[in-house]
User: Which sequence fits this backbone?
């Protein structure tokens, strides 16, 4: 089954520039920069292989929207955004020069200043390398961490609280391996509750990348950290993303998190400022 064409202002501006230059064809990405195809520049619009046509009016609309991506299907565009009744928040896919990020109520869920979401993901995953055995990924989001972990792990269990986030991920070309990799097992629910179902010492590594403290304070609690300690194998590693260490608020949260991690049983905790978090060892 062919994948839908997903575009951002980056591709739309390139196509409009080709039209202005009176080019007959142009190279454009149908999947937010993952691949390139030759597109025909016609009076009716930009025609992709397979016949899908992006009208010039729609291209102009997309070019003006720098915080949303669009799906092109049957000659029509639709913004990738969803209202979640579960959380009473809007979710949308925001383009960058690299992989897109997830916006929740206008707040990006990845670092985008001086980096891009996939580079941000790699910086987190590297803190607990080498990744082997079973891995717990506490917040699926767009699935980037689960996808990277699955390259070397025996199994990755990834937990997402809000199905709306997975609906966005299904439309994101950069998230496709989240849904077709048998190494990845997805679970829906509050990880605060889900983690209690796992046996002691179930995981070799845990990557904990929760929403900010103000949105999910229970995922920074001593009670939750004790559960993470319990399900982590002896010798295992936990990466906990917290936020920019140069930010006063994040620094305060970090101090509290480190103290509660120690109280939960983690005796060695190393700050990893390049990844905006800490690694705790069991």
Assistant:
């Amino acid at each position: 089954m062919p994948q839908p064409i997903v575009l951002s202002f980056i591709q739309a501006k390139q196509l409009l520039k080709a039209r202005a230059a009176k080019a007959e064809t142009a190279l454009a990405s149908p999947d937010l920069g993952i691949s390139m195809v030759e597109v025909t520049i016609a009076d009716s619009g930009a025609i992709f292989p397979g016949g899908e046509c992006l009208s010039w009016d729609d291209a102009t609309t997309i070019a003006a929207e720098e915080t949303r991506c669009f799906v092109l299907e049957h000659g029509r565009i639709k913004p990738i955004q969803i209202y979640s009744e579960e959380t009473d928040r809007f979710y949308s896919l925001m383009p960058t020069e690299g992989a897109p990020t997830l916006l929740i109520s206008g707040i990006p869920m990845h670092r985008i200043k001086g980096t891009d979401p996939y580079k941000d993901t790699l910086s987190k995953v590297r803190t607990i390398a080498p990744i082997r055995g079973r891995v717990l990924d506490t917040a699926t989001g767009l699935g980037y961490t689960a996808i990277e972990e699955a390259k070397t792990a025996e199994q990755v269990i990834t937990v997402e609280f809000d199905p709306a986030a997975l609906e966005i991920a299904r439309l994101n070309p950069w998230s496709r391996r989240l849904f077709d990799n048998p190494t990845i097992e997805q679970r829906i629910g509050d990880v605060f509750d889900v983690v209690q179902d796992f046996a002691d010492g179930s995981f070799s590594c845990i990557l904990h990348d929760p929403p900010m403290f103000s949105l999910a304070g229970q995922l920074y609690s001593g009670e939750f950290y004790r559960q993470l300690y319990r399900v982590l194998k002896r010798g295992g590693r936990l990466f906990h993303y917290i936020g920019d260490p140069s930010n006063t608020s994040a620094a305060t949260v970090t101090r509290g998190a480190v103290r509660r991690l120690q109280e939960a049983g983690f005796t060695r905790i190393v700050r990893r400022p390049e990844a905006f978090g800490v690694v705790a060892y069991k």
Notes: The chain has a mean pLDDT of 95. The two ends are 45 Å apart (CA to CA).
